[in-house]
Amino acid sequence: MNIAVLVKLVPDTEASLKISGDRRYIDKSDVNLVLNPFDEYAVEEALRLRESHGGKVVVLSLGGDEAVKALRNSLAMGADEAIHLVTPTGLDIPGTAGALAGALRDKGFDLILAGKQAVDDDCGAVGPMVAEMLDIPHISTIVKLDVDGGELTAHREIETGIEVFRTSLPALVTAQKGLNEPRYASLKGIMMAKKKPVTTIEPEAVTARTEVVQLNYPPTRPPGKIVGEGVEAVPELVRLLKEEAKVV
Amino acid sequence: MDILVYIESRGGKLRAAGLEAVSGARKLADLTGGKLNALLIGTSLDAMAGEVEGYGVDRLLLAEHPDLENYSPEGHREALLAAVQESGAKLVVMSASALGRDLGPTVAARLDAAFLPDCISVEYVEGRLTVTRPVYAGRCIMTLAATAWPAVVTLRPKAFLAAPREVAAMERLPLSVSLDGKIRARMLEFLTEAGEKLDVTEADTVVSGGRGMKGAENFQLIEELAETLGGAVGASRAVVDAEWRPHSEQVGQTGKLVSPTLYIACGISGAIQHLAGMRSSKVIVAVNKDPEAPIFKTADYGIVGDAMEVLPALTKALKELN
Ligand SMILES: Cc1cc2nc3c(=O)[nH]c(=O)nc-3n(C[C@H](O)[C@H](O)[C@H](O)COP(=O)(O)OP(=O)(O)OC[C@H]3O[C@@H](n4cnc5c(N)ncnc54)[C@H](O)[C@@H]3O)c2cc1C
Ligand SMILES: Nc1ncnc2c1ncn2[C@@H]1O[C@H](COP(=O)(O)O)[C@@H](O)[C@H]1O
Q1: What's the structural domain count of chain B?
Q2: Which pLDDT tens digit goes with each residue over B173-206?
Q3: CATH code of residue B75
Q4: Where do the H-state alpha helices sit in chain A?
Q5: How much is the ipTM here?
Q6: Residue B165 CB neighbour total at 10 angstroms
Q7: Is A63 in the pocket of ligand 2 (CB under 6 A)?
């Protein structure tokens, strides 16, 4: 089975972020960048499928030089090949999806995996968009995947439960937490990753359909108060919730 | 500019997020001076159509088809595309619910549209659509503008209030959708945990427990408090990973986004990834035995103490209040 995985490098979720002077970007100079956590699940699932079905796992990332780190990390986990779509300046979401779809088209992939969302832009859109652009079915936010013959069954997580979907291959799925426990790259994996091929592609320029006007820090919540300690504070808390906050 | 809003329903019932999207879309229709078209998808839509009345919809399109009873990305996509065609809408609005997060990009790709997901505010000034949306798990708010039409916008649940609104008269129109061979990914079944539990994303009150609850058995205290308040139970990732609670209850970056009126965090430290899922709650209460716990920085009211003692007392006091 030939599997493609879309991976992106994002700021570590713990990092405190600094907005750039022009207020349109995050200053990435001091931020630890990591493989998007949802993409780790996607890579892990691809590796497991390769282990049981054979084939190869190709990882793709679109971005500047930093994207290579996402690819190397995925190769170190065990992916076979990597493709870097070089775009020094970021594209908007349809642009990103279009460039990735262009690189995937007619390459004979049976399955494409992406993350549920990238924890930087938090869009959760690139996966379904790529599927539509390739005209293949997709199932997003999955927590379980079974592939047999030319079909797959996936558990899609929604607010109130799990929707069990079935579709034919080729297809695209996006990974949610719960799908698996990603492996750590071994030392050997890290060494081998350095020797694995990374192909570079320059996608065609596209016109953006959206423009970032500004980034701001979220409004700070007014300072709260410690009502008191232990059980003795309960009556006062209830009074505040009733009379001040008016929520009970 | 004419607008199309998709009103989400499940199992023949409107979803709260669906009517919220209608109100968000109504605002845009007022700002653009356009008509508000709305779309219901499924089977037996008449009863739901009646409920939409009074929320400011000018024209309601009804896409009825046996194959549209359950959600499928391709089936719903076809209905949406037919409705866009019928209405001539240049702007498509829906909720950023689990369904909308899937359908929004699907439709946007087919329309070759600008995509503005998970918005908490929308504006239309001098022909320019501008939205704000949380990014980096809520550590920043992005102001994003569409520079091309059409555009697809999804609205974060609970960021917009479903508000009654009179319009002259709501016209109803059946919409025929051709699905021949279009649906390749189909839902086989729906699995849901014991009964129709109130979901954390829909509850007005959420009582969440973290590792400080010490064990799965102590979540009974959380459940009792949630029940007293008519709310839902939430959990931190630490307790979901420990398998004390199901993943469906996890609040945060890798779990669910909630914005209830009241959020009570018990034995939760307040890690950034947890805050990402609940910081937009209206009132936040924290119970934690460590006065230095970061959650107290975000909470409106805090009690420093042992949750095992504070929770029963709080439940009791609230019961007496009612
Ligand atoms: C990529 C990524 C994604 C993540 N996504 C999420 C997410 O979606 N949701 C999420 O919650 N976390 C998420 N996390 C994990 C997050 O970083 C924290 O590890 C987690 O939220 C901690 O859970 P906790 O507060 O329950 O546990 P702890 O951090 O262990 O906190 C327990 C708290 O309980 C208090 N306590 C102890 N005993 C008592 C007592 N008897 N009474 C009262 N208080 C007591 C302690 O003082 C402490 O503050 C994510 C992490 C990463 C790296
Ligand atoms: N620049 C990119 N390069 C490769 N994959 C990407 C890129 N951006 C997004 N993706 C994939 O799409 C998923 C969802 O991203 P997003 O729609 O940006 O939230 C990610 O988890 C990745 O799998």
Answers
A1: 2
A2: 999 999 999 999 999 999 987 566 788 988 999 9
A3: 3.40.50.620
A4: 37-53, 67-77, 93-104, 126-134, 187-193, 234-239
A5: 0.94
A6: 15
A7: yes
